[in-house]
TrEMBL record:
Entry keyword Kinase: no
Pfam families cross-referenced by the UniProt entry: Alpha-amylase, SupH-like_C
SMART domains in alphabetical order: Aamy (SM00642)
Native organism: Cellulomonas fimi (strain ATCC 484 / DSM 20113 / JCM 1341 / CCUG 24087 / LMG 16345 / NBRC 15513 / NCIMB 8980 / NCTC 7547 / NRS-133)
Catalysed transformations (reactions): Endohydrolysis of (1->4)-alpha-D-glucosidic linkages in polysaccharides containing three or more (1->4)-alpha-linked D-glucose units
Family: Belongs to the glycosyl hydrolase 13 family.
Keywords tagged on the record: Carbohydrate metabolism, Glycosidase, Hydrolase
Protein name per Swiss-Prot or TrEMBL: Alpha-amylase
């Protein structure tokens, strides 16, 4: 195995960690997390094994959508620090081997952004065409609303000029008109600026929405929406050769493939659009599989993943900062997940998702929780963690909407979980209480416990990084075996091969496997071994490549295929 190859496409086997500076660590004790606090906790990420830090929006904001309503794309919100503090973070993270990326939110701005303030003053404003307007009343658009509990349509009447402006999200977030070359130039300036500051790329918010207007009509400079994404990727690559665009594209696989830039679907091109995309389909099928204790839905999703360009990658995840969307499931399937993992209506959101973290959804069963994270890191792709997952944080349903999972990080068992010394009423968000509160779940205690969730996730990260085939395999191989609750899959790259077994059910089983390529050489060489990377056990395949492996209820194993003469460390 040529490990040097893995350095060229660093995102193929990275470990990405997402956090909101506002809720991570407050160093000046004003109740709001800040960049100095994040810098002071960077060694926690380094010890965990994180190689890429994803920052949620840190820009000046009207703070009506947790930072996603931006009023200045070229600055740092003064509550969090200043540009110099961000530079210190990037420098310190780089010293620990961690790249930094940030949210690129260019579908919309805040209605308090100077562009929109100018645009709504007059139809002759130079910024008028930065946004999407209609002089006539648009038809009913209630079926296009992203947040149905907040909006009844995607158009709002603006009294100042007597026209309607479009907002696919909240009315205080008017859509940018990406068909306007001036808007595209402004977005390029944003990308170029932060790349120059030192970011290694961007997580691109709501990609299908901001592409929707790129080719709005005949004669536009951009003929197809995807041409704009290609040009944005090319611009970033010219500025920073190994920077990435990691896109939020919650669409069926066949449509996602197009956002990689693989137009013909053969998976042979290098790809010239998004570098990475989140596997929303796989994530939703995972939760259906958990609800049923049947691996079938997830196995089906993995089998249906389309070929993707050689340099592209799937970003796999269990939880992110939004609601846990289940919109790609059928109504009956969604009802199954709700009943099993979030039966209280207060745990649900928008009729399509859950506002919970994984441990409470699984009843706090450490076997199931660890099995799921073992599964996450074994899936072909790049794992993405949301802050607090490494210690098993829970949600706070007393917080509004999606904020239930964006509670302050729990560092110690002290007041406010060690996040801040400010009075509780001044905190950026309410601290989780009860069984998942900081007195029970925190970093400090788990750092000293070899059996803790934190120690377990550190082991997963280390084993994942030592197994580049998990990130570089071009396809996932689902292995035949008789147990519906068990997922058996294998990833192979060059001469490295690892297969993983995960039992989504509570009953112990014996898993028979047949590996046709795991037979000894014709000259009577040694039998092929399967060495468990997570437990001190191993099994030997027989002369026909057959072996039976025991698996406990909610059990998990990573089995490296070891042939005679292998020099890989185990």
């Amino acid at each position: 195995m040529r490990l040097r190859d893995t350095g060229d496409l660093w995102w193929k086997n990275a470990v990405i960690y997402c956090l909101d500076v506002e809720t991570f660590m407050d160093w000046n004790d004003d109740g709001i997390g800040d960049f100095p606090g994040l810098v002071q906790r960077i060694d926690h990420l380094a010890d965990l094994g994180v190689t890429c830090l994803w920052l949620m929006p840190f820009y000046p904001t009207a703070d009506r959508d947790d930072g996603y309503d931006i009023v200045d794309f070229f600055a740092v919100d003064p509550r969090l620090g200043d540009a110099g503090d961000l530079v210190e973070l990037i420098r310190t993270a780089r010293d620990r081997g961690i790249r930094v990326i940030a949210d690129l939110v260019v579908n919309h701005t805040s209605d308090r952004h100077p562009w929109f303030r100018s645009a709504r003053r007059s139809t002759e404003s130079p910024y008028r065409d930065f946004y999407v307007w209609s002089a006539t009343k648009p038809p009913d658009t209630s079926d296009q609303v992203v947040f149905p509990d907040q909006e009844s349509g995607i158009w709002t009447f603006d009294e100042a000029t007597g026209e309607y402006y479009r907002h696919r999200f909240y009315r205080h977030q008017p859509d940018l008109n990406t068909a306007n070359p001036q808007v595209r130039d402004a977005i390029a300036k944003v990308v170029g600026y932060w790349a120059e500051v030192g970011l290694s790329g961007f997580r691109v918010d709501a990609v299908p929405f901001f592409l929707a207007d790129a080719a709005k009509g005949p004669g536009d400079e951009i003929e197809r929406p995807h041409d704009y994404l290609k040009s944005l990727r090319a611009f970033l690559t010219r500025r920073t050769g190994d920077a990435i665009l990691m896109g939020e594209v919650n669409l069926p696989y066949e449509q996602q493939r197009q956002f990689f830039g693989d137009d013909d679907g053969d998976g042979e091109s290098d790809g010239d659009e998004l570098t990475m995309q989140f596997d929303f389909v796989g994530m939703q099928q995972l939760y259906l599989a958990l609800a049923r204790q049947d691996a079938g839905p997830l196995a089906g999703a993995l089998r249906s993943r389309p070929p993707i360009p050689r340099d592209a990658q799937w970003a796999t995840f269990v939880r992110n900062h939004d609601e846990l969307t289940l919109d790609k499931l059928s109504e009956d399937e969604r009802a199954e997940v709700f009943a099993a993992l979030g039966p209280d209506p207060d745990m649900q959101l928008y009729g399509r998702g859950l506002r919970r973290r994984l441990p409470p959804m699984l009843g706090g069963d450490p076997r199931r929780v660890r099995m799921v994270y073992s599964l996450l890191f074994s899936l072909p792709g790049t794992p993405v963690l949301f802050y607090g997952e490494e210690i098993g944080m829970g949600e706070n349903l007393a917080a509004e909407g999606r904020l239930a999972v964006r509670t302050p990080m729990q560092w110690t068992s002290e007041r406010n979980g060690g996040f801040s010394r400010a009075q509780r009423g001044r905190l950026a968000g309410p601290v989780t209480e009860g069984g998942y509160g900081p007195e029970h779940v925190n970093v400090a205690d788990q750092r000293r416990d070899p059996e803790s969730m934190l120690t377990f996730v550190q082991t997963l990260v280390r084993r994942y990084r030592e197994s580049p085939e998990l990130g570089w395999a071009t396809e996932v191989e689902i292995l035949d075996q008789p147990h519906a609750a068990v997922l058996a899959h294998r990833s192979t790259w060059q001469d490295g091969s690892t297969l993983a077994l995960h039992n989504l059910g509570d009953e112990s089983v014996e898993v028979p496997l047949h590996l046709p390529d795991a037979v000894p050489d014709d000259d009577g060489g040694e039998l092929v071994r399967l060495v468990d990377l997570l437990h001190a056990e191993e099994w030997t395949c027989d002369e026909r490549g057959r072996v039976t492996v025991p698996l406990a209820g909610y059990g998990y194993r990573w089995l490296r295929v070891v042939r005679e003469g292998s020099r890989r460390l185990l």
